[in-house]
Amino acid sequence: MFQKYDHRKIESKWQSFWEENVFYKVFEDEKKPKYYALEMFPYPSGNLHMGHVRNYAIGDVIARYKTMQGYNVLHPMGWDAFGLPAENAAIKNNVPPAQWTYSNIDNMRGQMKSLGIGYDWGREVTSCRPDYYKFTQWIFLKLYEQQLAYKKAAAVNWCPACQTVLANEQVVEGHCERCESPVEKRHLEQWFFKITDYAQRLLDDLDLLTGWPDKVKVMQKNWIGRSEGCEFSLEIEDFGEKITVFTTRPDTVFGVTYMVLAPEHPLAERLVSGTPYENGVSSFLENIKSISAITRTSGDIAKEGVFTGRYAINPMNGERIPIWLANYVLMDYGTGAIMAVPAHDQRDFEFAGKYNIPVRVVIKGEDFPEEDVRLTEAYLGDGQMVNSGLFDGCTAEEGKKKIIAYMENNQIGRGSVNFRLRDWLISRQRYWGAPIPIIYCPVCGAVPVPESDLPVLLPEDVEFKPNGKSPLNYVADFYKCACPVCGQEARRETDTMDTFVCSSWYFERYCSPHTADVPFSKKAADYWMPVDQYIGGVEHAILHLMYARFFTKFLYDQHMLSCQEPFSNLLTQGMVLKDGSKMSKSKGNVVSPEEIITAYGADTARLFILFASPPEKDLEWSDQGVEGAFRFLNRVWRLVGEYAELIQDGGQSSGGFEDNESGALRYKMHAVIKKVTEDVQERFNFNTAISSIMEFCNALNGYREHERHNLPLIKEALNNLVLLLSPFSPHICEEMWRLLGHEDSVHQQAWPVFDPEALIQDQVEIVIQISGKVRDHITVSSQADEKEIENLALARPKIKEILRNKNVVKVVIVPKKLVNIVAKQAEESEKSI
RNA sequence: GCCGAUGUGGCGGAAUAGGCAGACGCGGCGGUCUCAAAAACCGUUGGAUAACUUCCAUGCCGGUUCGACUCCGGCCAUCGGCACCA
């Protein structure tokens, strides 16, 4: 008699076995095709949540499946271990961030092992360890060498709660991405990475990413925000200076009736100083400053402006146009100044309406009376140029090109391109991050730390109270140093790097995690990179994925990598919900993975989470659903257990006879192999793959009811059942594989292959429709030709009955599927004749 | 406002190239076993109808087609991204 399914015993047994045998260790093997499966490495918050479980379960199925398909699979895991929560916990509990972080890592590593995820733990990477951040700093130095890391004073996003600056990408609707406090603007000197130099490539190469969801590519495209147009300068009357503007609509340049500078524009105050307009302008600027931080980010605000009393000259027609300041022009896009064309730009139209500025139509659409300038809104459509001198009659599209050419020939301006993407602000005024490897010398200025002095170690014994300055400011042992160039007493940079810097290259480190002289070996990276399948939450669609692409392109340019894109295929998994909303402590709807694993086992948890929904969609947690998955594993267990002994001794002697039931089972077996293979490989639809394994199990249970058993067939079917299920629920399958008499691991077997011959049926069921509605079914030989099928269908008594008093107009036949008889009422068709 | 996605039983979801709507699982109902219950197993389960039957059903309205969850046009709702980007 076989034993009850004891998930605890089975899972701990095989977890130890895999660990003791270093089962998932991989190395570069030129004889095998490689496959790199990667899940986003987690922040070590302390415990896995269901989102992690889902992420790793998906990755593990893919990794195990590819291994069985004969690939040499790299499947690593690590820790995105720098960051604010460690500091906050440290402040709260008075535990050093390092200690907090490392103990969380130990705990979470244990949880991952208890899920039975097949990682090569020999490649574990931890971004807060000196052997890792040494190379984060090393890459910083390379960027600095190429002038892609630079320091500048700028208006930056400041989170008052986190007491640090944030990158543009970390500001969501004016609020801190992490703590949701409203973000303020501060003028500070900070380190930036010049990601804008890569804007065009980051945009163009999205086309190479055929394995990415369109949704993510569109988000990145919008974030990069390329617009094409031109820049030109306007002379300021009686001022002796010029203002440069950027526009995407040079075709409307004859429609300019005013121009606008951003309130922060350096010329703004100088234009009015000593003029009667000075007071008006400065009170306007004061006003803007006081509301801008909060209100300018939150929803619609009315357009407001002030006239400077100054005029500029439109270089195309010599017209004098008034210069305004207005709140709707942003300093950090384009040149911070615009030409305003109220007739053809809605914002300018609204502003002109409010301040009684003329509107001049210069693009005439179809059915658009030339005289009528009383527009109710800006005209944004295509049309012919009018009121535009030499250019009258051109289409807007031609006009753009011609005017740019004219400006270039007459040295008025030039074609140019603008991006919304800003440089990446990487300084953080916090402790728990990789120190920026720069030294400030009173004589030599900013000096990079020599490569041989890396890593710049983060001191461990530190007071880490946040007060807007990095805690490293108060650690003399840290900041006091000698200038590497002249030897004078100097001071280290005390800001640390944004944690997104650390996570922008970890997938390359996995390729050779122990190299000590370079971030990763080129040879190993050439073998493993790019990542064949990356899996993670869609919340990283912009931040992490953009930064990681940027780093990969930079490292490619440094000849350290041979690929230009890090991730060939991307799967963005949905969230795990409970009662319709995301699991969170505040809502009290959290289901802990540990509890589920203890009660039902990792195999059940994984099976449920993969079965409940396709991976891209959100998943609704269901306790009953988990029970269902558990029941299914119990059914499989019993099925295998009950047959195991029979097969062991009787498998060979009992004949391989073929009756109808056996034929049906054989057919089902091959159909299921085909279905599961396609679902896993081509669509990642694990839910339907599992459902067809369930069907197969049901079929096997049904077959058991019959009196005669074809034991060799059953043996084959059970072997295949266990093989197909093994990527999803690895422990129970490992155990059942041994019960079926095998000596080796199920996870090292070849994936089953279906036999197309076995899927050819001599009889097929065909649907009979009358005018598109199903009325009957017939079973015919799969060889039957169309005429035969038609005759058989028309001969069915039920069909005859329905067709009485009707004329058959047409018969449509789809081979092996259906026959549709189109019929009309007899009277009607007579009438129509 | 712009861009994108989604909408199917009581629930999660299936229908992969326009061809049987509701696979598989959950829940419900009925049964077997049991002193009883749980577990397990078997049957049943979109709605309407007494019904073999028939009719109605894939957010709503229309269209194309022999045939539409699937394609086209127009709405509605929900979710996500961006949001004065010149």
Distance between the termini: 77 Å
Give helix % range.
25-40%
Q: Main sheet?
A: 7 strands, mixed
> How large, in whole angstroms, is the Cα Rg?
35 Å
Structural class: alpha+beta
- Characterize the overall form: globular
Q: What percent of residues are in strands?
A: 15-25%
Number of H- or I-type helical stretches = 26
**Poorly predicted parts:** 828-833
Total number of strands: 34
Q: What is the mean predicted local confidence, pLDDT?
A: 91
Overview in brief:
The chain is α+β, with helices and mostly antiparallel strands. It is built from 26 helices and 34 strands.
Describe this structure in words.
With 833 residues, the chain is α+β, with helices and mostly antiparallel strands. The strands form ten sheets. Strands 10, 11, 12, 13, 14, 15 and 18 form a seven-stranded mixed β-sheet that branches. A four-stranded parallel β-sheet has the order 2-1-26-27, covered by helices on one side. A four-stranded antiparallel β-sheet has the order 6-5-9-19. Strand 21 and strand 22 form a beta hairpin. Helix 1 packs across helix 23, helix 2 packs across helix 18 and helix 19 packs across helix 21. The chain is globular, with a radius of gyration of 35 Å. It starts with 6 loop residues before the first helix and ends with a helix. The C terminus is likely disordered. It binds one RNA strand of 86 nucleotides through helix 7, strand 11, strand 15, helix 10 and strand 30.
